[in-house]
Amino acid sequence: MVFYKVSVVVINYNKEAYIEQCLESLLQQSLKEIEVIVVDDGSTDKSVAMIQRYATTYKNIRFTRQSNAGPGAARNKGLSFAVGEYVAFLDADDYVERTGYEQLYHIAKEKDADTVIGNITCFSEETEWKLSYMKKVFQKGRPLIRHIRTHHELHLTPSVGNKLFKHAFLLRHQLEFDPTLHIGEDLLFTQNSLQQSNYTVVKDIDVLRYRVLQHEESLSKKHDLAFFKQLVLLQHKIHELYEELDRKEELQPIEARQLKFFTDSIMLKATSFTAEEQYDVCRYMQQFLDTMTHTTAQGSRDALFIHMATYNNFADFTKLIAIVSDEQTNREHVVVDGTLYSYLYRYFPAYKALLSVQIEQKARIEVLQGRGATLTIGGYAYIDSIATTNIQKELVFKQNNTTKIISLTNTLRTDITYLFSKNTISYDEAGFETVKIDLLDTLGEGTWEVSIRTTLQGVMIEEPIHVLLAQVRNGVKTTVIGNKEITPRYKDGTKLTFMIRTINLRQKLTSKFRQVRRNMRYDVSFLKRRDYHTFFAIIVYKLFGKLLRRRNTWLIGERPDTAQDNSYHLFKYIRLQHPEKRVYYVIDKNSEDYWNIKWLRNIISYGGFSHTMHLLTCAKTINSYSETANMYTKSYKNIMKFYPEWQQNEKIFIQHGVIGVSRVNHVLHKNRMNYAKFVVSSEFEKEHIVKEFGYDEDEVILTGLARWDALDDTSKGNEILLMPTWRSWIKSREQLENSTYYKTYMNFLQSKELHNLLEEKDLTLSFFPHYQTQRLLGELPFFHERITVLRQGDETVQHLLKRHRILITDYSTVSFDFAYMDKPIVFYQFDYDEFYSKHYNEGPIDHKRELFGERFEHMQELLIYIRRNGGTVDRQQIEQARKYITKFDSHCHRILKEIIN
Known about the structure:
Layout: E1 6-12, H1 19-27, E2 34-41, H2 47-57, E3 61-66, H3 71-81, E4 86-91, E5 95-96, H4 100-111, E6 115-123, E7 128-130, H5 134-137, E8 145-146, E9 163-166, H6 167-172, H7 185-196, E10 200-211, H8 225-244, H9 252-269, H10 275-290, H11 300-310, H12 314-325, E11 334-336, E12 339-341, E13 361-371, E14 374-383, E15 392-399, E16 402-408, E17 410-411, H13 414-421, E18 431-438, H14 439-442, E19 446-456, E20 459-464, H15 470-473, E21 479-481, E22 484-491, E23 495-502, H16 505-528, H17 532-549, E24 554-557, H18 566-577, E25 583-587, H19 594-597, E26 603-605, H20 609-617, E27 620-623, H21 627-631, H22 634-642, E28 650-653, H23 665-668, H24 670-673, E29 677-680, H25 683-692, E30 700-702, E31 719-722, H26 733-738, H27 740-749, H28 752-760, E32 764-767, H29 771-777, E33 787-789, H30 797-803, E34 806-809, H31 814-820, E35 825-828, H32 832-838, E36 854-856, H33 859-869, H34 875-881, H35 891-900
Parallel strand pairs: 1-2, 1-4, 2-3, 6-10, 24-25, 24-27, 25-26, 27-28, 28-29, 29-30, 31-32, 31-34, 32-33, 34-35, 35-36
Antiparallel strand pairs: 4-9, 5-10, 6-7, 6-9, 8-10, 11-12, 13-14, 14-18, 15-16, 15-19, 17-18, 19-20, 19-23, 21-22, 22-23
């Protein structure tokens, strides 16, 4: 008989699109002694044939079928066939990291564990992310071996997919899934297993890749009452389990989790229910609460739900659902007689006793630097859910009974309003000016705790400064000035404190030795991980960094694989007009654009050792996109985490569009990016950047965009370019095809009236769909012989703009480039309110009143305009564009001059 270390039970129900990836991930596991048992739960698609093919081909894959009975019954059937030493469970639309099971198995054997818990990575068609609550499970300092009775964080991981279960342990305790449950069957199984497990090993090992489907047709996704009925049944089962185990007194952690899940589900699902269905939800919540031993609410909303359900206040229950789900609801908290109440107090004053809330300060240190005795600190702070008008902020240093207070000056931070309230509560005064503090002049000897104090509407709160990012923390290191040593320390890993003391020569040498040893440990860690790239970059920089910096090199780039935008045009200008400048372009040598720029020479291969060394030693970095995301190597980022003081280059942002369509200060603010120079295209744009992005006037340079030097109108007068931007809320092909966005453009392109118009006026139309549309849809249908659908890579965007006479767009910044050539632009904005509530934070330009082109919301208006106006440009609109575009003889020359200055 074959010995299997792990049996993997895979359950499948109509997952033909994903089953192959799931099974391939199991076949490619680094742990080879694995058996796979696939249980089909009554599928009607082609997945059964796919599984049968795998079972025929591979001896370690077994396949069995059953009539549709739900996931619990399917897992039980698979478990009955398992012979492995440990058992894992997997859904057919998920898959497993290549070394996941091997790592879990080895640590299980080493510790003789009954159960092992690893980590989960969620992913969708768009992105991937870690579950935030798993951070508590793997929090540093927690033991490797735990028990759920004493480590309540284990209640936060109900999935069976990231775990191994010792087979003998399951048999000994007769542990199976409850087939009557279709919601939370894995939670109940996990609760039972972890409660009875003697040794649960918890290790941050990447195991499960959990697929998040946008339109998954399962009970948990459907908006029906059966879901809430199942939650009530699950709660009964949990209660019975703890009663059988004689552990009823330990129910509180899991009950708190499930109660929060129930109320969150109300907001997720019941908002679309009828009044009668919402009444049933209220009734189900009553039944849910009746089984509970603890009903502690997590927040005002949940406190009201609990109270209203308990006392059958149905009218208020439905009113609460409507108010909380309404995006227009004013969510600013209320201050009454110095006490802070939830915003719900406005709507339910009779429930005042339930609605007092804790004062909570939100603060972030974005700038933290230590140079000698000078501490530089900047960021923002506000009281949660109260508008910051007239807020006062102070930096507080405390030592025993001594307090030193430094008043902070408010700065405009509209990005905080957008990020943390979606413009519903004004946090515009949350920011504070970056201040420089001489610690030796300000503080005496001893240990000083640092906090931020905010005062607003008679409410005051003071909390320690928490510095979360290692790179920010490492901006301040131990320093010795004369006979004084200043040492930053972080209580509990993040709370900032300073210790100042007088030291002698021996202590100075000891302090220096400790710093060298700390640095060496970090350096050698890369050698141990076989990251030779990073290790040797550190060594070379320490040996030759100062010498290499004297070369005064500049590094320029865009995205890793492109050379088309402002960075390319500026680089080309410098290479041809000023070849004496040591400027190098960074690009992936495998990209198509590499061959378009190679002839200019001075090319650095993206991601290589030379790239990292140039980043460490260059005088200037220049990019038209986010430098951090598009220009830094992984090694450089690792080095900057520990040695942020090595970043001595000037960072110059030459933009990839005019800022005006949206507010992007949440990504480009001075405290986040710290650009030395920020290119703009008009006084209007400069004023906006200075006002809202935190830059001084001399840091914002009016030069226009480098690519404008190559703009010239080559159109023949009859070419229309249709070029819409994207909608970030669309995540899948199905969402795209069902969206107003897609249907509107398809209706326009398929319109017989448009086709007749193109023929009558001898016009052609080029449709350049956004690359996300191209990615999700693939090929688009044929519309008409006068309509051409273009794809990414067919030609550059600049060439498209030059050779067309009329541009039809919605909100794209390419409109500024088109306006630069004095050509007519039409803004087809059929979803204005939705776009500026879901996609962008509306910028300083009012797109309903201040545009430099005609604006339409309906297709018929657009067609009438094309018929009447053709390619005629309105002189008044050209003048309006001049507010946002300043023309110079050579934009590249002007940018270079400002960079040199």
